[in-house]
Amino acid sequence: MTTPGLNLTDLPTNGGTVLVAGDGGLIGSYAAREYSNLGWTVHGVSRRDLPDVPWQHRSVDLLDTDEAKNALADLSDVTHLVFAAYIERPTDPELIEVNDALLRNTLDALQAAGAPLRHVTLYQGGKAYGHHLGFFNTPAKETDARLIAPHFYYTQEDLLRRVAAERNFTFTALRPEGVTGYATGNPMNLLLVIGVYAAICKELGLPMRFPGTRAAYDVLYQTTDAELLGRATVWAGSADTAANQVFNVNNGDQFRWSQLWPRFAEHFGMEYAPPQQMSLTDAMPNRADVWQRLVEKHHLVPTPFEKLVAWPVGDFLFHHEADNITSTVKIRQAGFADALVTETRLLQLFDRLVERKVLPPITPR
Asked: What are the residue boundaries of the PRISE-like Rossmann-fold domain, all occurrences included (predicted)?
């Protein structure tokens, strides 16, 4: 059943065959599931095996040119590509090299297979505007000038524009922010940062305390629900108004952590306390034993603690002291109107993690 608030935009059913590169990640898995739910034929590729997914998955190293061509050789009916594959590297030149190669190898493998590709969806984000550098002009718009520093968002987009023109297909680049949802085995997730942090604090008898700076507590922020983003992906692949365009996409509202943190405490049945700046990356690995105790006590999914949460994600967002707001006027005017109340949605997602035994049961104070 579709989440309430996500049924505003009509989406195409049985529209063709889609390949989702990076179907094991948070964004890719939701895109693959949305296409699958709508009756499309869905193929997914990522480096790791994915058991029990409702689409056709294959484990492929897209960084290996020959392996990519061999593994995708039978996909001669693919009409749409959703490119959510990503490899982390420490520097921008390294990020550009590997992530451009992933995209180029995937496009070339589909061409070699004879796939009648019609559309490619690519994902970017707030770093296109300089979010990672601190302050940037808000609300950021798709027409804002690029930064002078090289970035793989730019080089991938340029590569895609060039190949799309040469091979006669269209593309859309979507720019979400703070994607929230859950994908098994994927720790790059703000939802897990908050949920696991809260569970450990509660087990230790500690209050729900924002672990960032006071300034970060009060700036404006936004998130993008992964299910909403999956729907935007399907829309982008079929809407004429999305062809060869870049769109910001988020839930449609903004918030301050100072508004949400007391609500989180109430929801988790915890006391609330004022912010206390700290490094989750330094502090939380020392609490692995507490998490293991919770896993055993509540029969939770036994994910290794070091692979459960990417604490630096929380440290970055909870120490970012400038507003992070992007305008979604363009995508709404183009025809995608889905929206969510972020506070309500995050609480729903925490409950979903409890139901899936990713987080321990929520008990009242």
From this structure: 63-303
Structure tokens at 158: 């340029």
Q: Which of 35, 123, 129, 153 is catalytic?
A: 153
pTM above 0.85, yes or no: yes
Q: For 90-114, how does the pLDDT look when each residue is reduced to its tens digit (9 = 90+)?
A: 999 999 999 999 999 999 999 999 9
- What CATH number is given for 17-179+224-248 in this structure? 3.40.50.720
Domain ranges in the chain are: 17-179+224-248, 187-222+254-324+338-355
| Ramachandran area for residue 5 (φ above 0: left; ψ -120 to 50: alpha; else beta) | left
Cα radius of gyration rounded to whole Å, the chain: 20
Spatial separation of the C-alpha atoms in residues 25 and 53, rounded to whole Å: 13
Nearest C-alpha neighbor of 186 from the set 327, 29, 294: 29
Q: Give CA–CA dist 147/306, Å, rounded.
A: 34
In angstroms, the CA 54 to CA 150 distance is 38
